[in-house]
Amino acid sequence: MCPPIRIAIIFVVVQLLNGGICFSADTPEAIVAKYHESLYQQKWKKAAAGIEETSLKRLQRLMSRVASDTTDADEQKQFLSVFGEVDSIEAYNRLSPTQAYERMLAGAWTLYSPETKEWWPKTSTQIIGSVPERELTHVVTRTTTHIKDNTVSVVSVATVKKNSDGFLIVTTQEFEKTLQKFRK
């Protein structure tokens, strides 16, 4: 079983990336809606395809650092197994950033409880609005699901940036801050 702290890190990263993707849509809001649709339908490859490359590289460096800081060989191997057929940090680092993200989503899914797998596909996202900031647009969403007899609702913000190919999600400096904590 993957240690709880490592599962928590993967879960937090998935939540931090809870935002846009390039689907030939012409608005940041449409991009975010399509990303959520892909995510909750477990279309990992589609979800990974449009995340900005620099953001994916940051995430890959963070996961590589988490694996490197694991001193127990069995624990490290177990953590890396979340990324598919990866048996070493070197093999993980050879993955493209897009492959690493796609595999992380798929691997995290395997760790979810049966209850989570039951409510996950029933999750819906509503676009509340957006706020432009220079070359970025911050899209505010409300994600809602029903777990047993309870409705759970979370408001989050996805930051989207337009480039020559369309809109892509970008991460904040949160990954870099987390990576700095691991370096201390």
In short:
With 184 residues, this protein is an alpha+beta fold.
Give a structural overview:
There is one protein chain. By secondary structure, the chain is an alpha+beta fold. The chain has helices at residues 4-16, 28-40, 44-48, 53-68, 73-80, 89-94, 97-111, 114-119, 174-183, and strands at 124-133, 136-147, 150-163, 166-169. The chain has a four-stranded antiparallel beta sheet with strand order 1-2-3-4. A hairpin with a 2-residue loop joins strand 3 (150-163) and strand 4. Helix 1 packs across helix 7, helix 4 crosses helix 7 (97-111) and helix 4 (53-68) runs parallel beside helix 9. The radius of gyration is 16 Å and the shape is globular.
Question: What are the salient characteristics of this protein?
Answer:
single chain, 184 residues, alpha+beta, 4-stranded antiparallel beta sheet, 9 helices, 50% helix, 22% strand, globular
User: What low-confidence regions span 5 or more consecutive residues with pLDDT below 50?
Assistant: 18-24
How far do the termini sit from each other?
Answer: 27 Å
Beta-strand residue percentage: 15-25%
Q: Largest sheet at a glance? A: 4 strands, antiparallel
The DSSP helix count reads 9
What is the topology?
Blueprint (H helix, E strand, L loop, with lengths): L3 H13 L11 H13 L3 H5 L4 H16 L4 H8 L8 H6 L2 H15 L2 H6 L4 E10 L2 E12 L2 E14 L2 E4 L4 H10 L1
Antiparallel strand pairs: 1-2, 2-3, 3-4
